[in-house]
Amino acid sequence: MILYTPLSESDIFPTESQDFQKYEMVNLQGKMVQVERLENGTCRIVQLLSTDPQDFLNEQFMPGSMVSSHEIIG
Amino acid sequence: MTEKDNTPKKEQGDDQSTQSSLVQKIQQLGQSSVAAAPDSNIHVLPIIGQIEGHIQLPPQNKTTKYEHLIPQIIAVEQNPKIEGLIVVLNTVGGDVEAGLALSEMLASISKPTVSIVLGGGHSIGVPIAVSADYSFIAPTATMTIHPIRLTGLVIGVPQTFEYLDKMQERVIQFVINHSNIKEEKFKELMFEKGNLTRDIGTNVVGTDAVDYGLIDGIGGVKEAMAKLNELIEHNKSDGTMIQ
């Protein structure tokens, strides 16, 4: 099926609200990180939000690494 | 986590408090923050993907949210240890008002700022790139300059058009005030026909952006760091002279 339309894809196929809820910004050791909540209760780091370049060398904040829910605040 | 680990240790070893404090120390040192590198005096602000403003985009989009960046810019301005800010841009553009807000914030920061455009700094990425004290563009990077538009929406009343026209004027004024490009040249690039598919505007490649005066220089990380350090030194020597 091809849709010829000037509308954007998200206008035609709206994103389900649960897709938004999977991701959230949390505080991990004083740094803001975006995590994806997984079904087994752990969280996968999606993105680190920091301006300090040294934070990006810290393996703990590496995107894809897992953190357990009780380590995070918020 | 630290608290959880420490409580049982405290309970057992009241008589051996010195030992338990040692254990605590070892536990604390066992955490990853031990080998902390010295605080960097230069901080980095990446502006990647779409600039997300008033409307939340679906999660599959890679976005930079302006409500995240604005507090960070304030933090950089306030922290006395931070002496310079480097802005790394690889953006397709996005929300005009959010982009202009970020540009104004970056332009009004008191610390030296240098921007690098890598890959692309399109659309509203242009004012953000020029808002820094000195801007660099990678030779292969491009910047798309085009008029403001609403994707797929039909303009119903003349007022909508006037509103968009005013918004566009704000973008133009910001760019010509913060770069060396002439207003005529910028408008010419913006309204050029036949360069972009189904759109008016121009895709300006790195070297051309410097020739037009839009960007200050060609370069990458090395040049940007050198320039920023130079600006920091200049800033410091200025400060001592006033005192």
Automatic annotation (TrEMBL), chain A:
The record's annotation in InterPro entries points to:
YlzJ (IPR025619)
> Protein name, please?
YlzJ-like family protein
Write down the species: Aquibacillus koreensis
The taxonomic lineage of its organism, from the top, reads: Bacteria, Bacillati, Bacillota, Bacilli, Bacillales
TrEMBL record, chain B:
Please, which domain of life does this record's source organism belong to?
Answer: Bacteria
Spell out the InterPro entries in the cross-references.
ClpP/crotonase-like_dom_sf (IPR029045), ClpP/TepA (IPR023562)
Q: What is the lineage of its organism?
A: Bacteria, Bacillati, Bacillota, Bacilli, Bacillales
Keywords for this protein: Hydrolase, Protease
Basic and acidic residues composition bias: residue spans: 1-13
Q: Name one Pfam family in it.
A: CLP_protease
Gene3D superfamilies reported in the protein's UniProt record: 2-enoyl-CoA Hydratase, Chain A, domain 1 (3.90.226.10)
The protein, known as: ATP-dependent Clp protease proteolytic subunit
Which GO terms fall under molecular function for this chain's record?
peptidase activity
Q: Where is this region: Disordered?
A: 1-23
Q: Which GO terms describe its biological process?
A: proteolysis
